[in-house]
Amino acid sequence: MTLHRFWIRRCLVLATIVAALSLVVGSAGLVTATLSPSTFNAGDGNLVDSDGGKDWNSSSIGIDCTSTPKKGCALDKPTGATDDSFGGGTDEDEPNPKVVAGSIPPNKSDLTRFYIATEKVSGNDFLYLAWERVQEPSGTTNMDFEFNQKQCPPDCSDNAVTPVRTAGDLLIGYDLSQGGTVPTLGYHIWKTTAGQTGTNPTCQAGNKLPCWDAVHSLTGNFEGSVNSVSTVDPIQPNAPRTLSARTFGEAAVNLQGAGIFTTGQCESFGSAYLKSRSSDSFNSEIKDFIAPLKVNVSNCGSIIIRKVTDPSSDTTTSFTYAAGGGLDPASFNLTGGGTPRTYSNVQAGSGYSVTETLPSGWDLTSLTCTASSGSSGTQDGGNPLKVNISLAAQGTVTCTYTNTKRPTLTVNKVLVPSSDPGKFNLQIDGVTKATDVGNNGTTGAQVVSIGSHTVGEIAGTGTSLSDYDTVIGGDCAAGGSVSLAAGDNKTCTITNTRKTGAIKVTKQSIKGNSGLAGATFEIRDTTPNKNLVATLTTAGSDGTACKDNLSLGSYTVTETAAPSGYKIDNASAVSVSVTQSAACGSGSEAAPAVFKDTPLSTITVSFDSLAGTSTTATIQCTGDASPQSLPEGSPRTLGDSTTSLVPGTYTCTVVIDP
Fold first, then answer.
1. Are the C-beta atoms of residues 163 and 190 closer than 8 Å to each other?
2. CB-CB contact of 130 with 249 (8 Å)
3. How confident is the model at residue 615 (pLDDT cuts 50, 70, 90)?
């Protein structure tokens, strides 16, 4: 007799005693859940809640055989020649069971479906199991629920159906004597090394590793039953379906109480399938099976941290996070739109946290979390960059950090001409960001808030804004306004062009106000040194000369040379103020009063004696005190290069032979 068979028989005795003391459900009455603190009723042999607790049809259990993927439900292939099963003498210890097709013998369980659900109640993880079969077999009922940590795909054994086994995988045996309604349950751990933690020293069958270790008792930590009379399965598809006596079985297992889950240690199974054995001998051939179902049987959960950036186009800025509460790794980095940080197989509990470090120029826009039932993610009250996480078994908390990149605004200065000495204080929203900048000065990139802003300037040291024409351009409107979105980097340029005017000089004769060309003028500034700014010579029939590109301010204009044949009427400096922008020819030139010059003349009187030297003459002209000799061949001239005659009346008296 094997250890397994002995254990089964001993437990059957105990089960018989329990059955005698318990009310087993047929159609005659109610049986309430006894595996406290769970209220799931696995002892009534049916699928419908009838005592205010929970059963397979309860919405909180969540069985759905019609969804994709199915939830907690696996369906076998139709009974008959196309049904799949294990063959070739495959027993439980075979890591690559052979899959064949064909009908199941009537003395064995021809499976149709199985259900699996989990629930955490008062800190305990409960596993709920159920199976259905075509008919009651003529022999004993021996079924095994195998739970694997890996899933197929991607981690398939050689048959491409069942997952690769891993040390620590779980096998729960469900054994029932012929005609019985009270099952016996025990579990085994897949053992790959002699001293593997959590396993019994020996194998259940044989002594060759790997193997399922010797059975672990579930006494006191499970509740189970089989329908003693026909019952109805209300779960789709093809519901309702009437199940004849002993074609439905169920069980509930306290995983912590049984030692399958250890407090403080993460345990997780991702796949489950159901199979039947040909006898109660553990190394007997395994027959029918229902292909593996992906499940999440775990006392652990997952924490997922996601990153969203605004603008979404920023996928390169790296954000650093510190993870607390024992999460490993303790730090990580995320980028916008990049792969989230997922912490899998995190032990259920509280005290987990994640804290973000903000890069320069970024703000935290929001920190939101979604959590499955019993789990939570809450933004820390003292540090908004921190989230505190509490994780329930099989729970998932997903937290999303959304960060907005603050825009930057740059104000640049351009002066025309570039050599202009002006100094300016550049401002954003009325706040000075750069002081006394000249040509090519800048505020540099200034971080600003999202929205509308205004750039401007005030005069710096020794500068008057009234001396310049100002144009704002670049990314700014003419008035200096600019709108920035998240992540924008905009530049506005303030160009100051020195205002320059012009002085126009007009030279006219006092005779008829006709224009005079050839007059020379000097333009000087009004500094103590009276610096020469320009020398002009009048030209053209209008007798004008002009000088532009003059800075606004005060000047003097002085005529320094008259045109040939004229004399300067006013040799004094004349003040002129250049107060507005103007160019020569614009009509807006500054102009002093018209400069007038007087035309000059000479008078020549000559004496020629026709009789030879016997005749003489004298002459007395205006201004002479007395007559003067007027020799023959020596004319008398009134006016010369220095004493030319101005317009007027002049008289000369000539006396011959005085």
1. no
2. yes
3. confident
